[in-house]
Amino acid sequence: MCACCKPRWENEGNSSSPSKARKTERDVGNAGRMSQSSKNDQPWTFILIQDRERLQAVSGCGTYAGHIAEAAFAVVLVDHNNWSFDIGQAAAYLQLAAWDLGVSSCLAYFGSQDQLKDLLGIPVEASVEIGISFGYSAEQPRAVRKSGRKALEEIVRKEHW
Ligand SMILES: Cc1cc2nc3c(=O)[nH]c(=O)nc-3n(C[C@H](O)[C@H](O)[C@H](O)COP(=O)(O)O)c2cc1C
Question: What residues have CB less than 8 Å from 81, skipping those under 6 apart?
Answer without folding.
Answer: 41, 43
